[in-house]
Amino acid sequence: MLKLRPATVLQSGQEISGEQRLTVELTGRPGAGQRREAVGDVALVGRAEVGDEVIVNVQALDLGLGSGGFDIVHVNLTRGLRAEGEPGAHVMKLNYTSLQHAVEPVEQGELEVPIGRPVAVLALHGQLAAVAWALAQNAPGARLGFVQTAGGALPGGHSHTVAALRRRGLLAGHLTAGPAFGGEGEAITTAGALHHGLGALGWDAAVCGPGPGIVGSSSPLGHGGMEALDSAHVSLALGCPTLLVARISGSDARARHRGLSHHTLTVLDLLLEPVTVALPAGMRSPVGADLRAGLGAVFGGAAGQSPPAPEVSRPVRITRHDWRRAAVDLPSYAASGLPRETMGRALAEDPLFFAGALAGGTALAELVGAAELADAELSDPLGAEAG
Prior knowledge:
With 387 residues, the chain is of the alpha/beta class. It has 2 domains: 4-82, CATH 2.40.50.220; 119-378. The protein is 29% helix and 23% strand. The chain contains 12 helices and 19 strands. It has helices at residues 42-45, 59-63, 128-138, 160-167, 190-200, 227-237, 262-270, 293-299, 315-319, 330-334, 351-379, 381-386; strands at residues 4-16, 19-26, 35-41, 53-57, 71-76, 91-93, 101-103, 119-121, 144-149, 173-177, 185-187, 205-210, 242-244, 248-249, 259-260, 276-280, 322-326, 341-342, 345-346. It has an 8-stranded parallel beta sheet with strand order 11-10-9-12-8-13-16-17, sandwiched between helices. Strands 1-2-3-5-4 form a 5-stranded mixed barrel. The radius of gyration is 22 Å and the shape is globular. It starts with a strand and ends with a helix.
């Protein structure tokens, strides 16, 4: 059941990336008189001004969730009841909930496959900036688009990272797919978003993954990182070279996320087809020296020199993928001014996490170059052969 409370807006901030930061005071019991931070999605519930009467969802803040340290405006009773929706839109998002709203979907035209342009699939939103930055360093001018999926925050405006990357020209566009909403374009499916971005919008590559925050239950399948399995399968089905950006950590307090995270290992195990995976150059085996010889041959490294090893019950399923080592430049990324924190840990506290994402961006640049070469050979096979 929703946990809703009436409140009055005490302070109204500027709109940033489609969201408005507010300070509200609860007016109903229990909690009357409490001052709390809140966020309003402007495209969904409109702007709020000081004195407005609002209804806020207090569940996340009351639970003390790390990624939900604020209330969410559910409706603005002072202004929102006069809203008229989106004229001409006819497809619902958040359908059959009290926040259902109509959008104009990007899906249209004929299905054209194979697309042939690469897709990088994220495990966490915190990888996005490093992937985009590394791609730009290694493939200048490449147009990268972001497809936001389920698995984390659903509102497109909740990511300040996306806004920063768009301002700096490191992202060419932002589409929200499935239940995610509020991007520069709305897609009913992840497949529709990738098809539109890589086709109609002319992206050279796409990066596909959840918004900020992640849903998790500490179980093998009950977490937002599993969205990567669906996204990778969609990418493969569309004929896109597919890269899984590895989630790696050297200092996560949870053993299951140190080395190569169980989130990444589970997806690599369950994928129906092989994909590309990149590791930072020089990295020893992130899954341990106790695996069978086949896995050791892929990663190399001497026994006893690996990060903590999560259990891998089917190593052959892991070794079948296209493992690559990629050069990373952590000092330059640290100086870039882009986000340098993950799960409350700064880059200096967990450089391996950012190195893994940078390796993914470098490998994505290689895939972009290979796709461009393939396009050139198709358009001028005699010229390519002569060269």
